[in-house]
Amino acid sequence: MNCIHCRNGKLVSSEITELTYGECIRAFHEARELGCESINIGGGEPLLHKDVYKIISYVSKYCYTSLLTNGYIIDDKVARKLKEAKVDMVQISLDSSTPEKHNKIRNNKNAYSHVKKAVEALVNCEISTCFMVTVSNYNIDELEDILKFATELRVSLVNFRRLIPQGSGNLNFGNLNPSFRDISKFLEKAKSLEIQFNIGICLFPFYSFKNKEIADEYIKSPLEVAEGGCSAGVTGLSVASNGNIQLCPHLPITLGNIKTDLLYKVWFENDTVLKLRNRKNLKGKCGTCEFSNACGGCRAYPYQLHNDLFMEDSLCTEFKASTSKETSYKKLIGN
Ligand code: SF4
Ligand code: SF4
User: Fold this and answer.
1) Pairing label, strands 64-69, 38-41
2) SS3 118
3) Residue 69 phi/psi, 5° resolution?
4) CB of 302 shorter than 6 A to ligand 2
């Protein structure tokens, strides 16, 4: 596939690398020793890795294990193998409830039919299945249709994600990125529909906390370090297919490589990681916000827009950032 918002952009085959089974398991054990309880296996397309079932089977014995896939090659046989490997959740990328739009965004005329087939196979195998939807100008008006589609297919959760200006998502950001006002309206509506559709709706990382009551608990917490919200360097790290250790898949700042560096050294000693854990280091509204220990904004958004990891998150609907600022961001990136 060649999605118009893909964070990897167009890769040529010489740029594609893969960790071996042994390298994955070694990194996993290092993460376990650090207390890791949840692993998300993503890509590229993780189901193309020759040892993917073996890796899931191993990891799922110790950790909550989810898989992020475009679903293209999932049929009954693949779903059964995932069930046998004891995957906890499969997340499938969906961009629209209509074949025309989904296929256009994915640049593949069969993408939609494969998503449907994949979800049916997974649900038949009683595997918890989730849709991952990148919210863009193409689908922001489709909220109810996407929830209806998910309900019909018996998907248990719909995760609406923000567009990050990275890779192809950066090249197409001007056309794809909804206005701040449209996103605010979308979020308000989404929150009100959860009960009506009787389906899980996740709005992270638009909202990094589910509700104010939870956030209030964080505010009362005596801990000085961040506890929740953006996981980058705080509750999680990411390992790219070439072994590079990153803050998150949307923050390709290389902190080391699992082939040559120890994960615990990065976790406990890397300056950027340590700085991110103290949310007082964040700038602007995020630095002074009473919710910062529970939230912290999305760090990838300002990083990709301004090359500044610590800048305030301008998409924060808690603070109603001005639309004029969004316009200037578009100018900054040449859109
Ligand atoms: S200002 Fe930053 S930390 Fe506070 S709610 Fe908004 S995004 Fe989260
Ligand atoms: S920077 Fe944080 S909130 Fe944004 S995508 Fe990465 S982990 Fe999620």
Assistant:
1) parallel
2) helix
3) -140, 160
4) no
pTM for the predicted model, two decimal places:
0.86
Long-range pairs, 300-306, Cβ under 8 A, ≥24: 300/164, 300/166, 300/232, 300/248, 300/250, 300/251, 301/162, 301/164, 301/165, 303/251, 303/253, 304/164, 304/165, 304/166, 304/170, 304/250, 305/165, 305/329, 305/332, 305/333, 306/332
Q: What does each C-alpha distance from 48 to 41, 232, 268, 329 come to in angstroms?
A: 12, 26, 33, 36
d(Cα 181, Cα 48) in Å, to the nearest integer?
39
Is the distance from CB of 28 to CB of 40 less than 8 angstroms? no
Return the H-helix or E-strand segment holding 132.
strand 129-135
Q: Which ligand is nearest to the CA of 40?
A: 2
At residue 225 the predicted structure's pLDDT band, cuts being 50, 70 and 90, is low
Q: Which atom of ligand 2 is nearest to the CA of 248?
A: 6
Q: Burial of 266 by CB count in 10 Å (0-12 exposed, 13-18 middle, 19+ buried)?
A: buried
Q: Is the CB of 256 under 6 A from ligand 1?
A: no
Model confidence pLDDT, tens digit, residues 42-52:
977 899 999 99
